[in-house]
Amino acid sequence: MPLHHVVVERLLPSKPLKIASWNVNSIKVRGPQVIDWLQASGTDILFMQEIKSMDENFPRELFTDAGYDIHTHGQKTYNGVAVASRVPFDDVRRGLPMLEDSMDDEQARYIEVDIGDFTMAGLYLPNGNPVVAEDGGMHPKLVYKLDWFKRLQHRAQVLNQSQRPVLLTGDFNIIPKAEDCWDVDKWRGDALHHPETLAAFQRLKWLGYTDAWRAFHPNAIAYSFWDYQGGAWQKDHGIRIDHVLTNAEASDRLLEVGIDKTPRGNDRASDHTPVWCRVTV
Fold it and tell me: Is the dihedral of CA 22, 27, 32, 35 positive or negative?
């Protein structure tokens, strides 16, 4: 399945850009919070996941009034991704390409843009739970997650072979290491820390991609998600599942990588918080 193209004119930036990713868990509910954070943080490009909105219902005026162009790949009630930018793109592509043996997929989980010689993609990888089906085999939701991951790996390989700087960011629904979780024993066997999921994530990195936050903070403990249940936020019972991956060319352009916990403390907050990086383009 070909990617759908929208070509726009571009003005080259004159300074490093701040790129962020945030699973907003409903743009209708949290749109004003997103705009407040964009303006306070000085973010140039924001990839959003779980917008839970059709394209035609997305509150575009919130972003255009704040000086951001908005490109969406929406879906009713569930999923949906978008990118807001105050820097025009060369090209915007919606949807992760299918492979010959791919499962049918109508879920909106991937958006990709070009700016200068950079390619950036925002993604929302499937959760994958439950893991086990009633017959004892692998549940279709985990099968779908691994199939989607296979398509992502193929796209990441194609992009890497272009020798362009490539940045992949979003909600990966993956806890890479024990230190990325407040208590890994509670997540063993879960689709977010399942051996098949971890192996797929490792294969993606073997293609030449780096977990940028961990590279900048090798010994740090920080999370990007806290469940709404059980006082997880108040107890700091979090997990790190939102990531920035960069190929070698993009890694050379990285200046900073961080996680901003502040928005998670808002009233009616998303259960995720923004991850961000600063790059030269």
Answer: positive
Q: Is 65 helix (H, G, I), strand (E, B) or coil?
A: helix
User: Which pLDDT tens digit goes with each residue over 59-109?
Assistant: 999 999 999 999 999 999 999 999 999 999 999 999 999 998 777 788 999
pLDDT of residue 102: 74
Q: What is the pLDDT of residues 257-276, one digit of tens each?
A: 999 999 999 999 999 999 99
Give the C-alpha distances (Å, rounded to integers) separating 158 from 153, 166, 248.
9, 10, 14
Class of domain 4-279: alpha beta
DSSP track, the chain: -PPEEEE------SS-EEEEEEE-S-HHHHHHHHHHHHHHHT-SEEEEE-----GGGS-HHHHHHTT-EEEEE--SSS--EEEEESS--SEEEESPPP-TTPPP-----EEEEEETTEEEEEEE-------B-TTSSB-HHHHHHHHHHHHHHHHHHHHHHTTS-EEEEEE-----SGGGBS-GGGTTTSGGG-HHHHHHHHHHHHTT-EEHHHHH-TT----SEE-SSTTHHHHT-EE--EEEEE-HHHHTTEEEEEE--GGGGSTT--SB--EEEEE--
